[in-house]
Amino acid sequence: MYYAGIDIGSSYTKAVIIDDDGKRLGAAVAKTGINFDEAAKTLFNEALKKAGLKKDQIAMVVSTGVGRNNCSFAQANKPEISCIAKGSYHLHGASCMVIDIGGQDNKVIKLAADGRQLFFKMNRKCAAGTGSFLEEIAMRLDTGTDKMNKLAAQAGKSVPINSFCTVFAGTEIIHQIRENQDINGIMRGIFESVVKRTLEMAPIDDTVVLSGGAVATNPVLIDLFKEKLEQEVMLLEHPQDVGALGAALYARSLQQGAPDEQK
Amino acid sequence: MPAIESTKILKQALTGYFQSFFDETVPRQKVAWCTSVGPSEILTAMGFKVYYPENHGALLGASRASEQYIPVANAAGYSPDICSYLTADIGAFKKGETPLTKAYGIPSVPKPDVLIYNTNQCREVQDWFAYYAKEFGVPSLGVFSPWKVDDLNEDQISYVAKQMQSLIPPLEKISGNKFDIDRLREVVALTKQTSDLWSEFLGLATARPSPITFFDGCIQMASAVVLRGLPVAVDYYRQLNAEIKKRVAAKTGAVPKETTRLYWDGMPMWGKLRFFSDLFERLDTCVVASTYCDSWIFADFDPADPFRSMAKAYTKIFINRSETHKEKVLIEMAGKYGVDGMIFHDAKTCPHNSNSRFGMPQRITKATGIPNLILDGDVNDLRCISEEQIITAAESFIEQLTHVPRNARA
Ligand code: SF4
User: Fold this and answer.
1) Which of A15, A155, B277, B399 is close enough to A184 for a disulfide, judged by CB 3.0 to 4.6 Å?
2) If you measure CA to CA, which chain B residue comes closest to A260?
């Protein structure tokens, strides 16, 4: 049997299709836009195509993400933190701290050796430290995040940003540019602020695995997490899809009637 | 969720109370404004009609009128970072409007002859009342309580009791009435009765399933706050408790399929009561108890020693206790109500009643194994509340609780 997970996120929608062994057969991702259900349908079809499957071969669809209630063809939905936890454990298979940096929010999730979610923290209601912060800054600087990554990677050291607030951080950056500070360092400082905001959320006391759209597209973040934590961090496979994968895994266990997931 | 029938009577009682401020068929009684945990018994005993601006604040929040009024106060120099009861209340006053008109048919807030505050809850009340003292040209008198007390000592009790006694001469002058200690004993006895019945009501939530939720408590507490010291409050809670006891006997849960029980620490988010009660009901979760509703239990009240017992009870309120004491109370409450998890509301504009800021949730979870969830929000300022974030966090929390051995069931 085959299962699908659809993660309708604030910025992007992701679809993943798996088989009974949890093997990923097809996936698709695109901007969410304003019609959640439409986006979900399109990506579901695209993922099906990649997997070489037909709709009626899918035993169950589970949705997650902010738009989880807007997915007309999902038989169930699950909170995104639970899906990220499930997807991460499936990929990592050991106790860990998951750091997920998405478009609108960041999560730190602690998983036990058997995959149980022990606790989670979400960022406070502010864009600072999230994917949308990076996009906002890129827009203000009239550049792209890929260019920002390139410059930041060449920096010797970061020019730090202190502000908690996205708007103030933007002003700080403009000020640094005006002062002719090293541009590469400024770029690195922008990414470093994302890492700092995240590490303020909860103590990190286990192996770190990274997921989420922002880490998928901003490789500098991985280096910076390593540097700040002074430990190895692992990037999960297809980091942007981890939530969708988790939803597909929920679909599998719900279909198979796992008792703890019958809610 | 089945509606509580007695609420209709509560509404009548509150309507009667508010309309009586404007009753022209009887000679006008002097009006005192009082903080919600201020010494209102003294005022009632001296013949004042007592009005509580915080109750007005809560009504502004619950009716969501606060959204219109907070910005008015902000623009006038009252920061968006200070108490949103205060900003909503002052904003409404500046606009000359009040939700009391719609709710209880009165034209405006009743005009005060004196304002009485107690700093046991926070410093905000002093400056809040100072605004009105100036507006109405009336005195604002305060009781300054020792802050963040651990175990209360004799000196502290005397310090507060003396201040309460020293209110008498100015109040005699303002009211034109002579103070009568026996009348005060009567009022203290009535508050004590109200408080005992209120405590009984809240305690009914120990039943499984719980017949009431925290959100019911937020509505039902109006009588314990506003009508305390009056016979009508006693009558009301007798009736209410009889109704809820029937639910307990019939095993009727406030949340029909109660599978998870939570504790709520901190203030309610007034404009979101319905949102929260729907959300938790959908998640088969009952928020069974709270520190907030418990704050109007004044076990120490004693008609035999009115001033000292009032001093004790009002200084010992939860919000005014040390972190160590609060922690002890929360752990006891979690055990008493058999909760599976604890929610800490971090209210942006009420630091005094936000107990997640000095590591308490983490310490309690470590000591008890009961997981916690901190929700960012606010008392009245909807600009500080993100429903979507709350839904994601609450759903994930409930899901997480299915992964840990339940406290009460383990
Ligand atoms: S305790 Fe909090 S909500 Fe109440 S008056 Fe003080 S600051 Fe405002």
Assistant:
1) A155
2) B402
DSSP assignment of A149-187 equals HHHHHT-SS------SSHHHHHHHHHHHHHTT--HHHHH
| From A195-209, B72-86, B259-273, the region with the lowest mean pLDDT | A195-209
Report the gap between the CA of A116 and the closest CA in chain B (Å).
6
d(Cα B389, Cα B196) in Å, to the nearest integer? 38
CATH fold, domain B7-183, is Rossmann fold (3.40.50)
Flag whether pLDDT at A77 surpasses 80.
Answer: yes
ipTM of the predicted structure? 0.85
Chain B residues lying within 8 Å of A65, measured CB to CB: none
Q: Which of A5-14, B135-144, B384-393 has maximum average pLDDT? A: B135-144
Name which of A8, A63, A81, A109 to mutate to probe chain B: the one with the most chain B Cβ atoms within 10 A of its Cβ.
A81
pLDDT higher than 80, residue A259: no
For CATH 3.40.50.11900, list the domain ranges present in chain B: 193-408
CA distance B218 to B202: 11
Second-level CATH architecture of B193-408: 3-Layer(aba) Sandwich (3.40)
- Of the pLDDT bands very low, low, confident and very high (cuts 50, 70, 90), residue A123 is confident
Contact A79 B395 (CB under 8 A): yes
Q: Would the pTM of this model clear 0.90, i.e. be above it?
A: yes
> Which residues of chain A lie closer than 8 angstroms to B388, CB-CB?
66
Interface test with A, best of B403, B406, B409 (most A CBs within 10 A): B403
- Chain-chain contact of A263 with B402 (C-beta, under 8 angstroms): yes
Q: Quick one: average pLDDT of A165-190?
A: 88
Residue A116 touches chain B, beta carbons under 8 Å? yes
**Distance to chain A for B75, nearest Cα, Å:** 21
Residues forming CATH 3.40.50.11890 domain(s) in chain B: 7-183
Residue of chain A with shortest Cα separation from B387:
A125
Buried b (16+ CB within 10 A) or exposed e, A183-214: bbbbbbbbbbbbbbbbbebbebebbbbbbbbb
What pLDDT, in 10s, does the model give residues A3-25? 999 999 988 999 999 999 999 99
Rounded Cα–Cα distance for residues B80 and B85 (Å): 11
Query: A153 touching B, CB under 8 A?
Result: no
